[in-house]
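Input chain follows. Return structure tokens only.
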Amino acid sequence: MSQHNESTFGLLPVLPNERVWNGFDFSMVNIGLAIATWGFLIGGTLSEFVDLKMGIAASIAGNTLGIIMMALATSIPSSKYGIDQYVSLRSVLGFHGVKLALAVMVLIEFGWCAVLAIMFGRASTNILSEITALSQSSLVSIVVFAFLAIVISWLIVAKGPVSIKWLNRIVAPGLIIILIAMLAILLSRYSWGELLALQPINPAPDRWWNYMVVFELNLAAGLSWWPIMGGLTRLCQSQRVAFWPNLLGLNLFAVFGQIVGLMSGLALGTSDPTEWMIPLAGPVLGMIVLLFVAFANVTSITSLAYSTSMALKQIKFIERMDWSRLTFYFFALTVPFIFFPDEVYSHFSTFLAFSGTIFGPLSAVYFVDFFVLRRQRLDIGSLYLEGDGKPYYYWGGFNWAGILAVAIATMIYFIILDPLTFDSSTAFLYMTASIPAILLAGVLHYVLSKMITVPKGLGAYGKP
């Protein structure tokens, strides 16, 4: 394998002349990710809880906070050194401790890819039902099309990041046009006053609780990009290119997409984005738009799969595995999820909330370690050294200060809000669940590091 392939498809740092994404390219990647995935799905989910005014406020506030925290913690270190975030995370959790985070992340990414594939399947099935007698709820059709989405995604990912770049250059502008068209159709059918008067589909009795849940889901949405962003930003040409497109694509366009999705859900009385296009645009144009949106989900799947497969190279027997074979195995392990489309798709809000339980504390610990304790300096060579006495090996490969900080903060999250049932404590109504978990994780990591890790001379803290 050449040096270029080893850095692009392996764990070695990507050199400046090997980085393929400029600001425009990475913006297109982020816009494609944001609109295809979160814009419609989250917008539809919000319509279950809140009206338009509360949804707009919660989307802007929650998503912006989550994206800034996630982007600072992942994009800056990875783009500065050209390394995958799971390599740089060895400095935080230890050479082997990072594998604990990796295990959780991989399970979550399997689920996300399955959600997107199922969305592709439902959209394709809706199109087929318009031209045949096929039922929109045909399980076989949804599964077959979801499998097709996975196959197409594998063929693209197997070719590497350049193919992903060109796919997003085509899809992202088209998605923006679709969003603007959907907004224009909604505003032509409803006055602004009528849209503001639309009521949520299935809200809880307490309006403030509904708002806080929507704020929490948006915060979790912003944080949920944590698993993949380091793997993508290592391919960016500068730290500025790596950071600002997150705010443009994953924040601005995601919120825009969510608001259009929220309007559609409220107006049509369904939170499923695949059921909006034909009623809004009519049979012919609606099917064309729905087909484009279906394939747009492939852009999100490819980016998720690329970064996750890169992260899996932390495991020794996978590190030297052929890239096409590794990505094949990743998608093969995603396939079982698509056989339960209703169960996976209907629990989207629960799945999203779970992202906040772990990625909030991880982002906080990562941020404090890199920006506060290390002052943005890493010993890159030592990140690849394994064994006792090595700078980032800590206690047998585990930095218990960082691991305990994440674990304790995650438990606090569950005490405040159960992401499975959405049962919450009174404290949730005043401070959400993610914010206290994030603050606690950061403070704990700082205190434990200063009291235990640094005095023992572990972790190469303070070294140039």
